[in-house]
């Protein structure tokens, strides 16, 4: 759909279209309420600001739809399709990189009790591994804020894809 179509959708249909971008009602309601958008940049700006920062409960809900980095999303949902496209840039990972990601994911999950989340689109495997290592030194509060920011970045990219 294009921006004009999105602007004209009934509110419930717009909410349905947005939910795979970020399953956070406050974000969805903010993006829908700010319509009509004059251009895609305005829609992107709304996607980045509507629910920033996310609450811990919102982050937990949104995280339930994200696979581990380097792993394929399961199922045929819109969220799984988005995730597959976002991680497609990682290509076929060499065994060494795959092993390092798996070890990093396990260490992160042990440390923070959730999967490591990062906007994969536009990042190389080495950049992702470096971010994973850097974020391991975050406090719980710092890491929760970073996860929220990554969710917002992912949501903005997904909205861009919907409106393309």
From TrEMBL:
Domain of life: Bacteria
Residues covered by region (Disordered): 64-92
InterPro entries: OHCU_decarboxylase (IPR018020), OHCU_decarboxylase-2 (IPR017595), OHCU_decarboxylase_sf (IPR036778)
Alphabetical keyword list: Decarboxylase, Lyase, Purine metabolism
Transmembrane segments annotated in the record for this chain: none
Name assigned to this protein: 2-oxo-4-hydroxy-4-carboxy-5-ureidoimidazoline decarboxylase
Enzyme class at the top of the EC tree: lyase
Pfam families: OHCU_decarbox (PF09349)
Residue ranges of every copy of the Oxo-4-hydroxy-4-carboxy-5-ureidoimidazoline decarboxylase domain listed in the record: 7-160
Keyword Lyase belongs to the record: yes
Organism: Brevibacterium koreense
PANTHER family (alphabetical): 2-OXO-4-HYDROXY-4-CARBOXY-5-UREIDOIMIDAZOLINE DECARBOXYLASE-RELATED
Reactions catalysed according to its record: 5-hydroxy-2-oxo-4-ureido-2,5-dihydro-1H-imidazole-5-carboxylate + H(+) = (S)-allantoin + CO2
GO MF annotations in UniProt: 2-oxo-4-hydroxy-4-carboxy-5-ureidoimidazoline decarboxylase activity
